[in-house]
């Protein structure tokens, strides 16, 4: 009997050793990109790992998310989490895509960061014996050149200008749109300010001949947002906005709202966790194109708004949402309550659930034009109509099963059979 037990223990130890050796053979990687990344390119450039479709089957999990930088680029944060034989081996790497960088330069940076992050895990596998590390030596710069390289002639200011247009139609319908805009922003650790100006016009025709319905909408918008960093949790600033819009019945709308915000997490952790409470209040002046349902052609009103926004990016998925309530001081019944949210949750292995939506109880539409609503107004939505609520929602379930490995890249026919837009 004791020989049988000894033999069983020996066979079991051999099996465990063989299993561990097999587990040590290759990294099983699950890559979760909360912001877009070119996974096919990554698979081509990093072929020495097994890419799995289920994070529960991985022994290395990478969560990638990003946020906009002051220059208009993006800061990417890659969080490496080890599982099974790599349990406790965790790391975080960051890199910045400059605003002028191409998509190819961005994906090259992503590949380089992933390779660097995987070195610690490769060192614990049989593949670690095959790893060779080389470092490119840069030419030394003189002190004068180094000083010149850090000087910024733009003093952190970033400018963007755009022009857009499109045509769409057939015999019974025609629509064309033109828009242009300009944005100037300066973002530092202590101050963020963004100013934008835009113009747009939309022309539409429904039907043909004398019975055709034709209308056009123009809109002008100018705004400024300025915020000062008070400390790692508090910020203060305000919004200034001017609007002229045919659709919204504004000949002129001018709003000034000072604001203060408290973030329950330090702003440095906003990539993964953000819970912000904001209060803003201020005056709004309205001059209307046509008389409103409240018999006003112009008015000056004061309003306030309180909002709570939440955003979490974790291994189990992503959740973000906000709730806000605001009202005018001259009539508290003129108020608005809004809810919005998005969630993408992994329930179990290949099963995930996603939902997004928005709902508003709105009783603050001071700008609605007086008069009857025609069928043309309802069908074409050429002007804003009175409604005490609005909403949208989408949801879905996804279940992936079958092979957990997806190392193969095959791009054949990816670009065929469709319409190409330039």
TrEMBL record:
It comes from the Bacteria. This is DUF481 domain-containing protein.
